[in-house]
Write a structure and sequence with these properties.
Length: 400
């Protein structure tokens, strides 16, 4: 080990002594590596921005069935138990999923809105209070049209025709929350499932005109016309869409948009890997040849070190250490250049969206780039190391 440490120290000293050659090599490494880091940063920035746009909009992970069918509680429980499902809740029939809302019993303005069931964990109400009992969460558009905010009260009405006479179920609901505009773009009210089922049963004539004081829990034997489901990740959207269609359930989702994004991500990764491999391989071969030539140029000096007792292992350390030092210095310089370019690129006007960066270079990217560069350079120095190990002590005496 002392011989290895001595050879490593001599390699560093030799690099300092030949400062011009060292600087040229370091600049060459940075010239190849910096564009690759910037290219990867651009790929990461664009893909991250697109993914964030879909992920932050929970409706990108939404899957709903198209036609009214009969889904029992067991089917919905099976869906909810899937590891790729984040949330699922029943939907009532399309014709029964609409109600009228007003600010009071005698208000002139009445707005009709979709009725959706909700429960804890609903992505559309993420971070907001979930309505319970006689409470409701409103979409942003419905709240604006009614002029109400969270903490207010709205009058909820459902009408039906019985024996030629019109009957109305009406009740006051507390506004528990207002969903952000990105969650739902239309007029909608999010109701606890028992309240939504009460509205459907009233329209079907199964409950009296006066609502019960306490809403009963859903009947386990009840069937539902549909469901509203949210995949756990973007990748799960495509898998769930295909799985449900294989089961004969026609669904609406953004699976095509998600699949397009994932394909773009994979293609850009392959493209980047190809460019990086070609550029890196070319320069590493050049670096290896340069180190080999350096060993040949210093063969007499290295043989004298052998003559003085330095082992063959110690000699192999000489080009490998130089390669590691040069690669590390080049990687540090490349990282600085790439970060400077990132700042300039993100100030340009073609950013992908408000507040988004088109280039994202993370510390982990720089660490991986540095590690791969150093390891690659050390491997490239292997040929030169073998040549150094083959130098005999007698060569120094013969050439003296």
């Amino acid at each position: 080990m002392p011989g290895v440490r001595l050879a490593a120290g001599l390699a560093i000293a030799d690099a300092r002594a030949e400062a011009r050659l060292t600087l040229t090599t370091v600049l060459g490494i940075a010239a190849v590596l910096a564009p690759l880091i910037v290219l990867f940063g651009l790929k990461a920035g664009v893909i991250d921005a697109l993914r964030a746009t879909l992920i932050e909009n929970p409706r990108a992970r939404e899957i709903v069935n198209l036609a009214n069918r009969s889904f029992d509680a067991a089917f919905l429980a099976t869906l909810a138990a899937r590891p790729d499902v984040a949330f699922v809740i029943p939907r009532t029939r399309t014709l029964a999923a609409e109600g009228a809302f007003a600010t009071s019993a005698g208000a002139d303005t009445v707005v009709r809105a979709e009725l959706l069931a909700t429960a804890p964990g609903d992505p559309l109400l993420r971070g907001l209070p979930v309505p319970e009992g006689r409470a409701v969460a409103l979409s942003a558009s419905l709240a604006d049209r009614l002029g109400v905010r969270a903490g207010g009260t709205v009058r909820f009405r459902i009408a039906r025709i019985v024996g030629g006479a019109r009957e109305t179920l009406a009740m006051d609901l507390a506004v528990a929350a207002v969903a952000p505009p990105a969650s739902f773009g239309r007029d909608a009210a999010f109701l606890p499932l028992p309240l939504l089922l009460l509205a459907e049963d009233f329209q079907d004539g199964r409950v009296p005109r006066e609502p019960p004081a306490v809403l009963p829990p859903p009947d386990p034997a009840r069937t539902y016309a549909g469901f509203r489901l949210y995949a756990r990740t973007l990748e799960d959207v495509v898998a769930l869409d295909h799985a449900l269609r294989r089961d004969g359930i026609e669904v609406a989702s953004r699976a095509e948009d998600v699949a397009g994004l994932l394909t773009l991500d994979r293609n850009l990764t392959v493209l980047f890997a190809t460019i990086a491999a070609l550029g890196s391989a070319g320069y590493l071969v050049s670096l290896g040849v340069g180190l080999y030539a350096n060993v040949e140029r210093k063969r007499r000096d290295l043989s004298l070190l052998r003559l003085m007792g330095l082992s063959a292992r110690g000699l192999t350390t000489f080009p490998v250490t130089q390669a590691a030092v040069l690669a590390f210095a080049g990687a540090v310089l490349a990282a600085g250049l790439a970060l400077a370019v990132q700042v300039g690129v993100n100030r340009l006007s073609f950013a992908v969206g408000e507040g988004e960066r088109i280039a994202v270079i993370r510390p982990a990217h720089l660490l991986v780039a540095t590690a791969l560069t150093v390891v690659g350079a050390m491997l490239a120095a292997g040929f030169a190391a073998r040549r150094a190990a083959a130098i005999e002590p007698a060569e120094g005496l013969r050439d003296a």
